[in-house]
Amino acid sequence: MPLLFSKNLFLDCVKLLPGFLYRFVTRKRQLYKDLYNLLGFAPGNFSLYEVALSHRSSKEKFLESNERLEYLGDAILGAIIGDYLFRKYPYKTEGYLTEMRSKIVNRQQLNEIAIKMGLRKLTIYDKYNSFLKISQIFGNTLEALVGAVYLDKGYNRTKQFVYKRIIIPYIDLEMLESVEMNHKNKLYGWANKNGKTLEFELLEEQMDNGRRIFTVGAVVDGELICSGKAFNKKDASQIAAQQAIDLLGLGEDK
Amino acid sequence: MPLLFSKNLFLDCVKLLPGFLYRFVTRKRQLYKDLYNLLGFAPGNFSLYEVALSHRSSKEKFLESNERLEYLGDAILGAIIGDYLFRKYPYKTEGYLTEMRSKIVNRQQLNEIAIKMGLRKLTIYDKYNSFLKISQIFGNTLEALVGAVYLDKGYNRTKQFVYKRIIIPYIDLEMLESVEMNHKNKLYGWANKNGKTLEFELLEEQMDNGRRIFTVGAVVDGELICSGKAFNKKDASQIAAQQAIDLLGLGEDK
């Protein structure tokens, strides 16, 4: 233990520096620059960002891993995207807004954005683990980064960061809106091509706080393969179709 | 339509007043006072709060209903509670924090808090619908109220409001922590009393981004009744036990 302490003493002391001084520490200079470019502002609490970039597989054991920050960032990102959509679509229902939000913050979408932002290069993880390379840990890094910005700079600066560096450059709302309509079409296309019959069937209608909830199932060749719930039948069948697409592994096909 | 407009002309004009002037409008004076007591500050944009209090069953059709604000408030509340727990428990894992958060923001808990805050009296809804009276629409009002405070006063004031008026008076974290441990005990108690055998069985072990996910099932008299997923077996079996309790309707018993 004393050995470990003395070995890391320099780095422990370095952690106490205010963010802007990191540009003078040789070992950290490059990361400082990369962070500056990524964030668009100078990091205040530098070690927060180091934690945000550290996957649990990282070999640098003196760093905490980013899972707690990921939890925090996930909640903050949900609020910021929620607020953004609320203002962007003043005449849309809460069902529409909820669906759009889940399209934006879904794992795959966030992972793609993270890679485009260059977080694959900056994430500290076990690079010999080829499974991790193709998994979605970079989306988690992005969430952790949002958590770090929030702790470092507060909500309003985080909102600006998310708008300027995530939403505006990477989120194509028109495309996401049209995605909604295409799950059923895509599944019908697959069914036609493969000589299957496809039907959507109303399975259940419940009351919840005075609102009706519909459960619609996707039925392929007479067999129920999955179902979706929503406040109207159209959305419920879209959700069922989306699930079927995931289940059948059609996500990447046309 | 012109009749409707002239009928509501007075109220339409009233909507344009700054919040503090509402104390001089006889019809609104009581609501203004109630809101002041509830929020702990003078409402800025009064009509936002009127919308937040309006359930879709409300007969006052010229008011929007609170569902969009509920969507927004739900996201903001998630972020604020997420932040609160992150700071409160610096040494707990993200799994623990996520679980605690979902215990706090679950529908039933929010509804109980809303009723204690007096939102049953303030919510504008169809009071002849006896189903609504016992349903959980007041928790939705509380979320919508958080959304209204956020739009009216911004994130930091909303955080103060949530801390002072929701978390401190109504959320007993110690009790919620102990709830976690009691699902399995409760279910074992029920099984003993009713001469049933209860076992928890590991059903599946998957890898997700390098973390193991365990699926544990609750098995009563040899029959699998439900299952839970988590990053460790203990949490997974607790989740399974909780689901079983809901399923068997034991929630209200000792």
UniProtKB/TrEMBL annotation, chains A, B:
Protein name: Ribonuclease 3
SUPFAM superfamilies named in the record: dsRNA-binding domain-like, RNase III domain-like
Cited NCBIfam families: RNaseIII
Annotated keywords: Cytoplasm, Endonuclease, Hydrolase, Magnesium, Metal-binding, mRNA processing, Nuclease, RNA-binding, rRNA processing, rRNA-binding, tRNA processing
GO molecular function term, any single one: double-stranded RNA binding
InterPro entries xref list: dsRBD_dom, RNase_III, RNase_III_dom, RNase_III_sf
Any GO CC annotation of this UniProt entry: cytoplasm
Major localization class: cytoplasm
Catalytic activity, reaction form: Endonucleolytic cleavage to 5'-phosphomonoester
Domain DRBM: 182-250
Function according to Swiss-Prot or TrEMBL: Digests double-stranded RNA. Involved in the processing of primary rRNA transcript to yield the immediate precursors to the large and small rRNAs (23S and 16S). Processes some mRNAs, and tRNAs when they are encoded in the rRNA operon. Processes pre-crRNA and tracrRNA of type II CRISPR loci if present in the organism.
Keyword Cell inner membrane: no
Family (UniProt): Belongs to the ribonuclease III family.
Cofactor: Mg(2+)
Binding residue positions for Mg(2+): E70, N140, E143
PROSITE patterns: DS_RBD, RNASE_3_1, RNASE_3_2
